[in-house]
Design brief:
Length: about 190
């Protein structure tokens, strides 16, 4: 990495993403700061959906941007910068899973209806707990494809690039994750019929 630019800060707000990346590769911390500002919330949300802990998600987001800054010279533009960033963030989240092996994942989904009846509210809370329990039982790889496909609405090719695997592997993991959730949530289906 080259020496950091000691020039007076230049407003980078008018630069396109490619220009910001190029400037950051030249050591421009202000350009990199613009990239961080642009993607910080999206990266945090992606990580948070995978690990379901705000403090850990903030820490992993910070580690992601530090790692990206340290390796920005390796970015060659074969994909979009965001796809590359997403891949780094996903790897950091997987690494966190390997280190901590959380037993329970909390999925913050608001299942309430503005006109909910108290009995329905209780039922929804019970269903929510069953869904949370089922999602927590998925492996990190299966949870990742569910998050990227169902919550982030990425295409198979984008998920494959993010997870550094083939599209076939993505499809297989998604199939198995959905199948496992279907089996785990069978009691919910039966109780609603």
């Amino acid at each position: 990495m080259e020496m950091l630019s000691e020039e007076a800060p230049v407003s980078c707000a008018h630069f396109g993403e490619a220009d910001l990346v190029h400037r950051a590769q030249q050591g421009d911390t202000f350009a990199f700061g613009e990239l961080v500002n642009k993607y910080r919330d999206r990266v945090f949300n992606q990580i948070y959906r995978m690990i379901q802990n705000q403090d850990d998600a903030l820490e992993i987001t910070q580690k992601t941007f530090v790692k990206v800054w340290q390796s920005i010279q390796a970015f060659r533009g074969k994909s979009s910068f965001y796809t590359w960033l997403y891949k780094v963030a996903t790897r950091e989240a997987f690494e966190w899973h390997r280190r901590t092996r959380p037993r329970f994942v909390e999925l913050h989904v608001d299942l309430r209806s503005p006109t909910a009846h108290p009995d329905r509210e209780i039922q929804r809370n019970e269903i929510r707990q069953m869904v949370l329990h089922a999602v927590a039982q998925l492996s990190p790889k299966h949870r990742a494809v569910i998050v990227l496909k169902e919550l982030e609405d990425l295409q198979y090719a984008e998920i494959a690039e993010t997870l550094h695997c083939s599209i076939g592997t993505v499809m297989s993991r998604l199939f198995h994750a959905r199948r496992k959730l279907q089996i785990l949530l069978q009691p919910i289906y039966e109780s609603l019929i």
